[in-house]
Amino acid sequence: MNFGVVAIVGTGLIGGSIGLCLKERGLATAIIGVGHRKVSINKALKIKAIDEGTTNIEKAAKQADIIILATSVNLIPDYAKKIIPLMKKSAILTDVGSTKDYIVSQVNNEIKSTCNGEKPNFIGAHPLAGSEKRGIESARPNLFEGSVCVLTPTNFNSKKCITRLSNMWKALGARISIMTPSKHDEILALVSHLPHFVASSLAGVIDEKHWKFAAGGLRDTTRIASGDPELWLSISRQNKQKIIEALRCFSKEVECTINDLEQGNDKKLLGRLKKAKTVRDKKKWKQE
């Protein structure tokens, strides 16, 4: 299986890991890394995540059979706007952003307003892998093994292109889940965005002088609060309403717990603790 020339815009953790896996498994004819800084491109070349690198996005877009936007979510629509007029008719444009409704609507609006005749294929994607770490230094070829990759195709996309992109992610080790952009954002607000804001709030509420007493529990619970603040600000802007709904849902649960504690309702409190343990223990985590 070969996916031709693959251009990766943004060779950080996710983009670099895609490149490493494509090369290790012989899935591409060539991998072009695109960045705005030569130092980042050189790092990707050094660890052999890409075959060639460039700061010229036009050059890469014209050659590529698959173009992957692996930048922060706020940059994806602008990069797509530059790339769409340059794409080969048979090429696929995709991304790895953790928000989908805003990105997909913005890119499809651009396609509708600027493209006459046959429309290029943009298929939103989100590999549910990674960590709070960033940068090519943390990239690894097995990052997507056993993970889930969500695809959010629309009526603009051909079945052939959806299948081709699905096959690429399967070849990288991921299981495919297809849903609407809105459904993706609703789910991710609960399972990804909410945990980050909860972890961030927890880290923020503890006095700095008390951290010396913290052990594994606080370390594990607040790990994701180490994520890039600017990236999470962009995510919060693009999925604002669904994150608010998720936080309100969590807030209600916290209020119920406070009431149980105030009223000395050990039975209800124990029930909550048992339910949480049961749900958590059923999940088989990738690293386990």
TrEMBL record:
Residues 4-288 form the Prephenate/arogenate dehydrogenase domain. GO terms for molecular function: NAD+ binding; prephenate dehydrogenase (NAD+) activity; prephenate dehydrogenase (NADP+) activity. The keyword Glycoprotein does not apply. Pfam families: PDH_C, PDH_N. InterPro entries: 6-PGluconate_DH-like_C_sf, NAD(P)-bd_dom_sf, PDH_C, PDH_N, Preph/Arog_dehydrog, Prephen_DH. One of its GO terms (biological process) is tyrosine biosynthetic process. The keyword Oxidoreductase applies. Keywords: Oxidoreductase. It comes from the Bacteria. This is Cyclohexadienyl dehydrogenase/5-enolpyruvylshikmate 3-P synthase. It comes from Candidatus Scalindua brodae. The lineage of its organism: Bacteria, Pseudomonadati, Planctomycetota, Candidatus Brocadiia, Candidatus Brocadiales. The gene is pheA.
